[in-house]
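Workshop exercise sheet. Pairs work together: one partner reads the sequence aloud, the other fills in the structure field after running the prediction. Swap roles for the next sheet.
Pair: D.N. / O.F.
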Amino acid sequence: MSTASVYEKYPAQDPSVLIPMLQDIQEILGYLPEDEMHKVANFTRLPVSRIYGVATFYNQFRLQPLGQHVIRVCRGTACHVKGSLDILTTLENELKIKAGETTKDLLFTLETVACIGACSIAPVISIDNEYYGHLTVKKVQKILASFKNDQTEE
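Structure field:
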């Protein structure tokens, strides 16, 4: 998909358009690739370091593509007390990535959140905004296996 329409939408050499431009580009591409950051810098006449500074300051921006499935592990108090660290560690080991990363095959992105808001089913994760609660290490392994199996069947 092309980002050309984004550059047509905003006035050139206007630094005040930086955040809306980055939002629009990410909406189209799903993240902010390095080459687009350079294009934005040229367009706004801002240093590339400033573009990166803004993109890394706001957590709404991503510098890497998201996986097909986004797994969010709740690390709130209720989940922590009920073992969410074990759940996170299991996911990291099974997926061979750390929180904040995406698998090489772009199938999964693993994130942590301060609170999902489903304390009554702690520990809880969400995958693509579907909630899985009362988790154990074995349940997490089964859930992941089902997503991986669905992928191989397609």
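Discussion prompt: The chain is about 45% helix and 10% strand. What would you look at next?
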